[in-house]
Amino acid sequence: MNILVIGEALIDIVSTPGARDRYAPGGAPANVALGLGRLGDDVEFLTDVGDDFHGGFLLAHLRESHVSVLASPHGATSTALARLAQDGSAEYEFQLRWDPDSSLLEDSAPSVLHFGSIAAFLTPGSAVIDRLLDTITAQSGPQTHGSLISFDPNIRPSIIGSREEVLPRFEDLAGRVDVLKLSDVDAAWLYPELDVDAQIDCLLGLGADLVAMTRGGEGAIMSTASARAAVSSTPVEVVDTIGAGDTFMVSLIHDLRARATALSDLTTAELRALGERATALAGITVSREGADLPWAADLRS
């Protein structure tokens, strides 16, 4: 079963109070691809990197985690400056380019498609996602497509624009996927007038079968139209939160990729189990420095 992830890969420049800056591979979709590769899944990653030192470093890092990278390196690699606060939370500043080479994609639809973050909103590359969604729908119909499609918007207002500009795009994409994962911060930015339950109802109403809302240290809420479960976060000593939400997404894709029955039929107990596994996996990541996502061996231990 092949998984295709589409999105940005970049270099995180991490600034911590009282310490020297450090450089690390990053980008939410890149983290998802990397995490899936580390768990042993067959994953391809369409991205846009430079032919500079940073680009070479990113490619090597992804390939070491068993990710098949689809890219035509040229120019400068995108960067993100992450400023960590004392509590481990992060704020970001980006210098980005998003123009992937779609000719590297196969004609056949993947079994699983995941996309998200800046790449879903930033032109010209966002059009690649639209065309692939159109292709999947055209091959098998709007309600019967054979691919599992997931989306994590990972909202960055300083890059993608105002709420008024972004909301129509977000809602269009959210209506074309099976799994929608987002943070409570994302949801509050998109729907500030609604409480959490109303936000989830609204998101389900857009068309996704499963909505997963992460809530930082408070855990997550997993919901379909007929069942809802709140799960607590795994108690760990937090080093930093970079990559936590991406790890949660990895766990969902890994668990759902071979599911034969409809997501809408998930029971409350099944939703809780999915959420608990995802928060446990994310707990491993936040206990480490940087976006060091778990390997399969970490789960066994």
From TrEMBL:
- What's a Pfam family this protein contains? PfkB
Q: Which UniProt keywords apply?
A: ATP-binding, Kinase, Nucleotide-binding, Transferase
The question of whether Acyltransferase is a record keyword is answered with no
InterPro entries for the chain? Carboh/pur_kinase_PfkB_CS, PfkB_Carbo_kinase, PfkB_dom, Ribokinase-like
Keyword Nucleotide-binding in record: yes
Q: Please give one Gene Ontology molecular function term for this protein.
A: kinase activity
Q: Which domain of life is it from?
A: Bacteria
Which stretches make up the Carbohydrate kinase PfkB domain?
A: 3-294
Question: Gene3D superfamilies annotated for this entry?
Answer: 3.40.1190.20
State the family named in the UniProt similarity comment for this chain: Belongs to the carbohydrate kinase PfkB family.
The record's section on PANTHER family has: HEXOKINASE FAMILY MEMBER, PSEUDOURIDINE KINASE-RELATED
Descriptive protein name: Carbohydrate kinase
Species whose genome carries this gene: Brevibacterium spongiae
